[in-house]
Amino acid sequence: MITLLADGHEEKIEGLVVPHGATILGWERKPHGWCSGDACIPSFRAAAAETEDGVDLLRFAGLLGRPAVADTDEGVLAIGEPTGLALDRAPEFGPLPGLRGTKVAVVFWASWCGCRYDLPAWETLHRELGGYGFSVVSVSLDRDPEAAGEWLADLTHPAVVDADGRIAELYNVINVPTVVWIDEEGRIARPQDTMTATDTFRSMNGLSSEQATAALRRWVIDGEAGTTSRELRASTDDERLARLHARLAAWLFRGDRRVAAERHLAEAAALAPHDLAIRRGLMPLGGVDPFGEQYFELRDELEAEGIAIYRPLPDWQEDSL
Question: Any idea where the Thioredoxin domain is (predicted)?
Answer without folding.
Answer: 84-218
